[in-house]
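Each field is listed here:
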Amino acid sequence: MAWDNTFIDELKMKIDIVDVVGREVQLHKSGANYKGLCPFHSEKTASFMVNEEKQIFNCFGCGEKGDVIKFVQSYYKLPFMEAVEKLCGEYGIKMPEYSGSKPKIDYDKYYDINAKAARFYYNCLGIPGNKGLAYFKKRGLTKETISRFGLGYAPDSYTALTEHLRKEKVSDEDMLKLGLVKQGKNGLYDKFRNRVVFPIINTQGKVIGFGARVLDDSKPKYLNSDESDIFMKKNNLFALNLSRKEISDQDRVVIVEGYMDVISLFQGGVQNVVASLGTALTDNQAKLISRYTKNVVLSYDSDSAGINAALRGIEVISKAGGKARVLNVTDGKDPDDFIKAHGKDAFIKLVDEAVPGTEFELNNAKKGFNLSKDMDILEYIERVVPILKKLGPIEQDIYIKKLSQQYNISEHALNMAVNSEGGRKAPSYSAIHKDERRKNVSDRVTRIELSLLVLAMNNTNYLRRFKEDGIEFRSQLSGKILSVEESLAESSANGNHRIDEKMIFRALEPDEEAMFSNCLKSIELGPNDEAFYKENRATYLINRYKEERVEVLNEIAVAERLERPEDMQKLAGRLVEIDSLIKKTMEECNA
């Protein structure tokens, strides 16, 4: 089994070396690199570096270095083929199924042919009176910018490039493979004719393809090279070869739609910018950009196609671990027009004010609703629930609070909708509520829980009592300690024994250990374990009932707003039950 370089390059693009190495080596951010102790030789001072941008590792102590495949080979003692298979298996990447009998592809030859074509197009701008140079001058590009991007012109001829490359000893077969020419009835003809040409260059400085724009109103407006052994649109970004350092330095990238947008912004002083080669942003492009920054600003047209592209971009950027924002270019202009009219500082101000991706999605979801009407608000909330579901807990909490304030709906009701499996079920005290309370455990509740766990350290029989009395340990620290105590109690031959605090400390993180240690110093059990238990159990239950009471009151408000009398009746009944339980628990505690 053998694989060509295209597959290997795509594999390395899809897999982040920091993720792979980080599983085996404890890495810490150090400037542009990640740093850790070398896994290949014994050392006390870290000299092992991983560069996320270049996707390589290097140990300055023992000299071991290479890419992600080399790391897997060296660390796991695997040959090249098995290292590739291991990575493919772990990341769910399908391997091509062909044998080593396939002829080896000469990539350098193809890069050289494209370089010859790029020089030809560039030199054509020097032909007196050519339309390409006139077009670039009309668009305000300087000679320096044209040279920096290697821009060119494809003459209004069917065979100009074909004849030039034949003189350069390039075979017709190779021209066809690279998509520079097409096969017609009368022989080969140039793919690009009477168009300005934009070379597409990878981060290694190799010309991998071309984009070309018409000079009139003919269609299609833009053409790209056909995909080939060295060019796949989904894996590359226009101008990343020039902008990647600025992107890393600023820790932010602006992704625009067109080649000219990139070039004009670059010329205007905004150089952390790329374009996505005329396609919607792909997963591979998002992964590629994430090597340089996690902060992505999308600048697309405000028409339906542009909005859909932005929504798709938000999704793939989030999937790649990035944070997306959406830029609104004012005055109905594109970035090219805007920076020429208003300058660098004004454009950077637009970038700074770009709307967070989630906010953009929520605003877009408002279309078609009259949000002064209750029923439209209800339908709008149902539309945005899927957007909220996919957020992390902190971002979810932020937007739930915003929606609650905007539309006078309780945060609890919104949390219910987000955490439910769907459908309009009558609000009730359920697992959804319990999960929500787990997210918001107060210091007071945590202290009650830890007090009960300290009691169980002295008498493990109380672990059984916790279950019988329905006591839940909702804080992360309490849950961890409870798990340790239950495990130690099960492994002990004695039915009732004391658990050494040191056994618990071993399972805790340093900050957790400090918190529990302080708790142990401040909790006094007293001479009567049962009295201590009953007091804390009562405090715990009363606190839980009061939490539920607030939830039910919120649900009643929602049911009243949505005119659901049956739900209101059920909830009012539960409110009476809760008040009775609080009264009963207090009486038992004082008895």
Remarks:
- The two ends are 80 Å apart (CA to CA).
